[in-house]
Every structure is written in structure tokens, then in C-alpha cells.
Amino acid sequence: MVNRPLMQCLATLMLCVTLPVAAAEPPAAAVAADIDQTLTRCLDAPDKQSTGGQDECIVDATHAWDARLNASYRTLQDELPASSRPALLAAQRAWLASRDADLALIGAVYATTRGTMYAPMNANDVMMLTKRRAQTLTRYAADLGYAASGEVPPLAAKAVKSSEIDSAARRVKRRLPTSSRNIVRTSNERWRAFVSAEQGLIAAVCPSGKSAAGKACRKAQANSEPAARLALLKGLDGLIGAQ
Questions:
Q1: How far apart are CA 205 and CA 147, in angstroms?
Q2: Model confidence over 153-191: pLDDT tens digits?
Q3: Model confidence, pTM
């Protein structure tokens, strides 16, 4: 049987550890809420209380978020001007490379844990990569509408210093087995390449020029990825060697 206190903590994390979504369009918000609610019901179902059952719930939610991501990508692609679509493609390709490197990092961290109860947590961390990207693309599509009106809702993410991310990454690297340390380096390099590519997409979805709305949008969007990165690294650091 699965550890219920642990899974209750997991359910809380799935609701809270997400990128802030600023005023997403109602249909998109409804889809996101439905995925989360379906996952919660599945995790609470009497016949899903084994580790395998919990894994199944999270894998199903991951597939749902992947479908949401693809739909959000197509929506954004359709709404962007043709001249900005290469920026979307470049950013998404860079994200895919970063995601794959992060999957390897997550796998390396969970390889140091002991106990089947960590399997659902592993699946959840994998799911969160796709969920966050789906939410980001949904938010970008909404921002195009706000750009036209000159209004940009503020995001909750706080600015994170590059030194904070570097420090967290060094700690994870230091605590992992020597054989896994190159995985941390690759993950960091690909994440930074993604953030660099994402700047072109942010410029395309935010109001142009030096307007207050444009500056606020670009700053808020630029803060989101570093905040998520730091949260991921700190979470993984806390799991290394867990039993």
C-alpha cells in the first residue's frame, strides 16, 4: 500500500507547485482545472491506493497535460503573426531539449532514493515539466490579447538571481554520485539555452516598445522560468538519498 501522508503531500504539491497563470482564457482554465480534479479523484479512489495505482493516475494526467500543451502550442501558432512563428518553434525545440535533460536529472535523483513510495513522486515531477510548459503556452496565448489592449495582468513569480540557481545546481551536483554529475551540467546548459531561446517568444507575445505594459509583461514572463527552475532544483536536492 502507498504511504497516505506522503500522497496527501503529493496532492498538495500538484496543486501548488505550478507556474502562475495570469487570467487564462476560460476554456483553457477549465481544461486545466478538469485535469487537476480528475487526477485528485483518481488518487483518492479506493482501487488506486497501491503504488502502481497512484502511478497510473499520474501517468494519465501527464498524457492529458501533453495534449493540453499541444493544443496550446497550436493556438499560439495560429494567433502569432507569421514573422513570429519561428521564435515559437525555436523556443519549443529548446524546451524539448531542456525537458529531456531534466528527465535524466530527475531519474538520477530518484535513483538515490529507497522505497516504492517514491515512485509516484518521481512520476509527479516528470508530469510537472509538461504541466508547467502547457500553462506557459496557454498564458502566452492569453497575453497576445492583453498586448492588443495594453493590459497585462501581473504574475506572482518573484525575481530569482542567477547565483541562486547556480548555487542550488552545485549542491545537487555535489550530493549526487560522481557518475551522475555530468547529468546536472547538461541539464543546466540546456535549460539556459532554452531560457535564451524563450526571450524571442516573450518579445513576440508581450506588447512591443517601451510602454509600461510591455516592460511589465517581459519582466514577469522572464521571472517565471528561473523561479520554476529554482523550485525544481531545491525539490530534487531534498530527495537525494531519501529513504
A1: 7
A2: 556 567 899 999 999 999 999 999 999 999 999 999 999
A3: 0.86
